Amino acid sequence: MTARPLSPAPALLLALLLAPACGDTGAGDPSSVEFRTRVQVAKVGTADVQRALELTGTVQAGRSVHLLPTTPGKIEALPVKVGQAVKKGEVLARMDLGIASLQRQQAQAAVRLAELGLETAKKDFARVQELNQRGSVTAQQFEQAQAGLEMAQLQVQQAQAALGLAGEQLDGGVLRAPFDGTVSVVGGEEGDWYNPMTVSPLAGPGGLVGVVDLSTIRVDLDLAEADVGRVSAGMPATIQVQAVADQLPPDGLPGRVESVGLAADASTRTFPVRVVADNPGTVVRAGMAGRVWLELDRRDGVLAVPRAAVQRDAQGAWVLVVEQGAAHKRPVTLGLEGRDQVEVQGGLQGGEQVIVDGSFGLPDGALVEVAP
Fold it and tell me: Engineered SS bond to 185: which of 29, 110, 203, 298, CB 3.0-4.6 Å?
């Protein structure tokens, strides 16, 4: 029987089946595929580098007061509530001033009576003085007239002082905002009896209404005695508040050191330091936790890399530079080290790429893929 030739389709299938056995096996070897580590890089460039001392504290309002009436009695009006914005001079609370008004009227009458008595004493003394010059009165009579005049003068002064006190009592029954701000606490209700000698648990010691000015903030810090010589009033500072970090500048609020204490706390051996800053939009609230950096040194426009790019070993500082798709270890000489940037004094040139993320465990020469 004559053999029939194979059709083209079966012949092609046979060739494909036999190809792995007689061809190059390297094409299917997974080990021949390149593996690249994905990394993030930053370009070496110029930056402003600041070396800072980091401290923590609690944010307080730039100005804060607790107001109390000096006149005890019933609260007649309390037209404000917590969170309300108020202007300087605005009435915050008013006491029932009926009794205080009567006391002032009484004091006014007493002043008028004392003044009338003084006028009479002056006339009497003038008459006795004239008679004394003629020798018509005794020395005792003259001294009595002189003492009467002095007593009348003192009575006027006493009455005027009482009138002033009555006026203070009347004025003290009205609380007014001492500055533009926000009501922070209200320690009573209209109709309540209020005594300034008692302590209000809401408004603070003896306070009926609290007002804060959050246009500026302050942070009181405890500075170690080893650092106090490096910090002085007027020194630049930065305040960062994590709770509202997304509403603040990336570097935080710029501020300054307002004061440095001259004496250390006996128990902690730390010195009190106060830092102040403007608070645009009153974003930061009193009581929030604040992180403060006190600028100890600064260099502007120097060659720098992000702090995340710098690594250290027994030989010193180094970075991983990306060149032709591979990471290469490069020793560097560092200068001023700041919170985010580190000055580079040698080993790098501007424009080179250094790895800032993904370098953990990455060997020298490893292939990398730069993330966009």
Answer: 203
Identify residue 2 by its one-letter amino acid code. Answer: T
Domain 54-62+213-299 belongs in CATH node 2.40.30.170: yes
Dist CA 95 CA 31 (whole Å): 89
Structure confidence by residue, pLDDT tens digits, 23-68 = 444 444 545 567 899 999 999 999 999 888 899 999 999 999 999 8
Q: Which CATH number fits the domain 38-48+300-370, given the four candidates 2.20.25.160, 2.40.420.20, 3.40.50.300, 2.20.25.100?
A: 2.40.420.20
